[in-house]
Write a structure and sequence with these properties.
The chain is an alpha+beta fold and 605 residues long. 47% of the residues lie in helices and 22% in strands.
């Protein structure tokens, strides 16, 4: 038979290069490198030592050819330049020991330090990656071995390729680890989000604390399976169980029903740390809860009100001694969800309490307003009546001064009656029921204008009214708003030869804005904020009549509609008053967005 042709070193190097390209783990790289190297040079054994992450030690990563339990000088140890592996890395060059005792002569303390026996011949090849020491590749021979230039070149290239392949394999392993870790995180996030969504859906229709707690307990049980769950409330210096899942042992139920002292470690710790606490390896006696020894792991989630502890969500398992990341993520998610729901319930409770208080105060204020108005009208009526009687009794004999005094009394009484009427108007405006529906402002404007034109007969008034929208609101109160603004415009243009009143609307993304502008006497803009206050006036009553309640009513009515009022002007240049109304949208039956407020429709062409 023909003799088997031995592959050349170049052919072996080519085969190693191809095999290293497919190696995806450090172990695969070691196998690819050590086998060809030993076969190519007839080496007895091969060893790979790698630098640890700390950078101060070498660890054996792979061996081939050494007898099981055999003594070798290539062992784990410090990265020491006094030893051949450390020396090769420090010098950044390969070390070749060709003859017996060469290695021992160069490093006389080697065998004593390692407890091993040096080979007859050895090659120590340093490996570097991106300029940093990675480790060494070592080949041992049972007989003296010359390392010609071709073999040295082969070994140096092999070490270099090994370092690159090992770096790539480590990177792949790290990436796979990161992917696995991120996948685990995503699974935990998914479980947490599902628990959060499930609880949010369950808790959407209630603000009752115990109902919320029962739903939280149910979601924990549904999400985590065989897990006991409970909700506690702090009563004095004890935690009292308010909600318990039905799988607690009777002894634990009795313990929880009696109440747990607030100083108990598993309850005190989450309060002090103000976060969820997970207790693995549950020790019932050490935790001060004898009777709960069946549980292997316990968790607590504290809740606070006004900075003080008020509630506690608890969870325990009898089937494990340690919580998984998924279980912890779900518990935190349900705890956060319950905390938000409890905050919302508390806020709604406070709002309801405030609403009841305000209603009571408003009722008292209304009663007071009517009582005061009634009580004030009596002396005013007396003053008016007796002034009239006095004027009649004096007859023609009344002198000019006395007549003037009587006129002042009567005018003051009339002014007082006007103020009383204003108080009642403001009170009624605040209490009117709003019957919301579509309101055609353009049609409403036309009706109000006709009424006011009768009162302005004999005056030259130019009206400029633009298109007005259909809005959502209470028609009766919006009529009061427009009437008040237009009446003011007529009143304060009384001194103008030609009064000009403009009315228009602006369409905005979320609201309608309606404006009334006149060319009347105007006002100083620094007093604009006072205009909408009750009994606030910027002109004397002998110039322009009124009690100063019309604009106050306008502000209250528009505020109840969810809008705002505005005013701008300059002395002698007129004034502009405006108000906004929200645009409410709803879904039409054909799937298109329909507006409940829009431009007044016109006839089709």
């Amino acid at each position: 038979m023909p003799a088997t042709v031995r592959p050349t070193l170049s052919e072996r190097l080519q085969a190693v290069t191809e095999a290293l390209a497919a190696a995806s783990t450090p172990a695969a790289v070691f196998g690819v490198v050590l086998n060809p190297a030993r076969q190519a040079l007839d080496a007895l054994a091969g060893t790979v030592l790698l630098v640890t992450d700390a950078g101060d030690r070498l660890q054996v990563a792979a061996r081939q050819g050494h007898a099981e339990g055999g003594q070798t000088v290539w062992q784990d140890g410090p990265l020491n330049e006094a030893l051949p592996a450390g020396d090769a890395l420090a010098r950044r060059e390969a070390l070749f020991f060709e003859h017996a005792s060469d290695l021992k002569r160069t490093y006389p303390e080697l065998e004593a330090r390692t407890g091993g026996v040096a080979a007859v011949a050895s090659a120590v090849l340093p490996m570097f990656l991106d300029g940093q020491p990675l480790g060494v590749l070592v080949l041992d021979f049972r007989e003296p071995h010359d390392f010609p230039e071709e073999e040295q070149r082969f070994l140096r290239i092999l070490a270099s390729q090994s370092a690159i392949a090992l770096g790539r394999a480590r990177l792949t392993t790290d990436l796979e680890g990161q992917v696995a870790e991120r996948t685990q995180e995503l699974e935990e996030e998914k479980a947490a989000l599902e628990a959060f969504a499930r609880f949010t859906e369950e808790a959407a229709d209630t603000t009752d604390v115990l109902a919320l707690a029962r739903r939280a307990v149910r979601v924990l049980r549904e999400s985590l399976g065989a897990t006991s769950a409970a909700y506690f409330e702090l009563s004095g210096d004890h935690w009292q169980a308010q909600v318990l899942s039905d799988d607690f042992p009777p002894a634990v139920v009795a313990l929880f029903r009696r109440g747990i002292p607030a100083t108990t470690r598993s309850f005190l710790r989450p309060v002090e740390e103000r976060r969820a606490v997970f207790i693995n390896g549950w020790d019932a006696e050490a935790e001060g809860l004898p009777g709960s020894h069946d549980y292997g792991a316990v968790a607590r989630y504290p809740f606070f009100r006004g900075g003080q502890p008020c509630g506690m969500l608890g969870m325990g398992t009898m089937h494990a001694r340690q919580w998984t990341q998924r279980e912890m993520a779900v518990f935190r998610a349900v705890g956060r969800s319950l905390g938000l729901a409890l905050e919302r319930a508390e806020q709604l409770r406070q709002l309801e309490e405030e609403r009841r208080r305000l209603e009571a105060a408003n009722e008292e204020l209304v009663a007071f307003t009517y009582s005061v108005s009634h009580d004030l009208r009596t002396p005013v009526r007396h003053a008016t009546s007796f002034a009239g009687l006095l004027r009649q009794s004096l007859g023609e004999g009344v002198n000019a001064k006395s007549a003037r005094y009587l006129t002042v009394i009567e005018e003051a009484a009339e002014r007082m009656n006007t103020l009383i009427d204003g108080v009642l108007q403001v009170s009624r405006a605040s209490r009117l029921t709003l019957n919301r529906g579509p309101v055609d402002l353009e049609s409403l404007m036309a009706v109000i204008r006709r009424e006011l034109e009768v009162r302005a007969a004999g005056r030259q008034v130019v009206w400029e009214v633009g298109p007005l929208p259909v809005v959502t609101g209470d028609e009766a109160t919006l009529r009061l708003v427009l009437t008040s603004l237009l009446d003011n415009a007529l009143k304060f243009t009384r001194t103008r030869e030609v009064a000009r009143i403009e009315v228009w609307a602006e369409e905005r993304p979320e609201e309608w804005a309606v404006f009334v502008r006149d060319n009347g006497v105007g006002f100083d803009p620094k007093y604009a904020d006072r205009l909408f206050g009750i009994f606030q006036r910027l002109h004397r009553t002998d110039e322009f009549e009124g009690a100063g309640v019309g604009l106050a009513n306008v502000r209250r009515i528009i505020a109840r509609h969810g809008g705002r009022v505005t005013a701008s002007g300059q002395p002698g240049e007129g004034a502009t008053f405006g108000f906004t109304l929200p645009r409410q949208r709803s879904m039409a039956g054909n799937g298109q967005e329909a507006q409940s407020g829009g431009w007044r429709p016109t006839a089709p062409p």
